[in-house]
Design goal:
alpha+beta, two-stranded parallel ribbon
């Protein structure tokens, strides 16, 4: 018996010692700090930010087609040949190794004065694509925030469960001491001592398993934060809920703020610009060209002329018009297909609006249901605490058995852990509702 007791005490002391040491080394990770670290380090958000930069570059004036094209040309030609010229008087003129050389260099400019407004609508399309990329990044951030807090709240829940199990283990250890004293003085049987020791062992194992789950979940949170997995920390376990009167305006504006609906509207705008860009090909294109060049040619002597060197330097300019009167029907096909794409986008928007309406209703129902469950669990904890305290008093007076006392203890443990679970599930449901109504990034956590 003494050997078993010693093992139980040593195991309990090790658990409490490790808890104290780890607690002393852990820093506090607030929700605001967790959000800041996620926005700064999370890989998914970093990729979304880079996609925004790409879209921003695409929507710049440098990619619009409104600026002229300036390019340089240079070249040379060299000819070496034997020439024979037969004259009418019967004489022949032979020139061996006749060399001809020509050189040229120029700076050229090309500019489209009018292209049927195609580049105007294409530029607007690029601007709208930039807006769409920001909406896609917002969706990524919202999903990452939900992922962050689902793990953050799990760390908080397990932290509170560890505290509950620590208190449970302390009560069970006191029970072992009390049973030992009573057994030594002949006030109970060895069975009572063994039951108490079994309960201590079970409580110790439950505490160890919960501690390990807590460590694993903290590593999961460090992955979301994209930082060293070995960093240890404590989290905020205080949870407050948004009053119903503050949620009502959000629900009324869900259609205007939901990110999926906003994305569908952006896609419709892009498809409309695609139609306009395609129609622009029906109109003529007017272009301006200009150049400043230098040319030099060296010609060999011939039967009729002496050798010569000629140089030209000067400006050239021109205006051109191109109008595809018929291109085989490809432009007409593009316009028709672009209109079909827009029709598809309109249909998708109607589907998304219906899905969002359903998702908001489901999220609101889940939230209200979980809030009600949490309130019930709070009352259940109060009831079980009262029951446990009265059971402990009666147990100390010998009016109930250790089995009955243990059952009251287990009921209290279950009530407290269920309350913790309900609390964080309700808070996460609230965040999911805020995402559906487009307000997740506009509230303070």
């Amino acid at each position: 018996m003494k050997s078993i007791n010693l093992k139980v005490v040593i195991l309990s002391c090790l658990i409490f010692a490790s808890s104290f040491m780890s607690y002393g080394q852990e820093s506090f990770l607030s929700r605001a700090e967790a959000i800041a670290l996620t926005l700064e380090n999370n890989y998914g958000i970093a990729v979304a930010d880079n996609n925004i930069l790409i879209s921003e570059n695409n929507a710049d004036i440098l990619n619009s087609g409104y600026l002229p094209t300036v390019f340089g040309n240079a070249g040379l030609n060299y000819t070496l040949e034997d020439q024979r010229t037969d004259r009418d008087d019967g004489q022949s003129f032979v020139l061996e190794g006749a060399k001809s050389e020509s050189y040229n260099a120029s700076i050229n400019l090309e500019y489209t004065l009018f292209d049927g407004l195609g580049r105007l609508y294409n530029f607007k399309r690029l601007k709208e694509s930039y807006n769409l990329s920001k909406l896609e990044a917002r969706e990524t951030i919202e999903n990452t925030m939900l992922q962050l807090f689902s793990v953050y709240f799990e760390v908080a829940r397990l932290t509170e469960n560890v505290e509950i199990l620590e208190q449970t283990l302390a009560i069970s250890r006191n029970r072992v001491k009390r049973a030992d004293y009573q057994f030594d003085y002949g006030q109970n049987t060895k069975l009572e001592v063994l039951n108490a020791e079994v309960d201590v062992t079970n409580d110790s194992i439950n505490l160890m398993n919960t501690r390990q789950q807590l460590l694993n979940t903290k590593r999961d949170l460090n992955v979301v934060l994209a930082r060293d997995l070995k960093v240890s920390f404590n989290v905020d376990t205080l949870v407050t809920f948004i009053p119903k009167m503050e949620l009502d305006p959000f629900l009324e504006m869900a259609k205007q703020n939901n990110v999926r609906i906003l994305q569908s509207e952006s896609n419709i705008a892009i498809s409309q610009y695609d139609i306009s860009v395609s129609k622009a090909q029906f109109l003529p294109t007017v272009g301006l060209t200009g150049s400043y060049g230098w040319n030099e040619s060296i010609s060999p002597a011939s039967a009729f002329f002496t050798g010569s060197t000629r140089q030209n330097t000067g400006f050239q300019g021109g205006l051109n018009l191109r109008w595809n009167l018929f291109d085989g029907g490809s432009t007409l096909t593009q316009v028709r297909n672009a209109k079909i794409v827009k029709d598809n986008q309109l249909l998708l928007k109607e589907q998304i609006e219906l899905e969002v309406q359903r998702d908001v209703a489901n999220a609101l129902g889940n939230y209200e249901n979980l809030i009600a469950i949490y309130e019930i669990q709070e009352q259940n904890v109060i009831t079980n605490k009262n029951n446990f305290e009265r059971s402990r008093e009666r147990f100390n007076l010998g009016q109930i058995t250790s089995i009955e006392f243990r059952q009251a203890q287990i009921n209290l443990i279950n009530a407290e852990t269920n309350k913790n679970l309900a609390k964080y599930e309700a808070k996460l449901a609230e965040l999911q509702l805020l995402q559906q109504v487009g307000q997740l990034l506009n509230i303070e956590f």
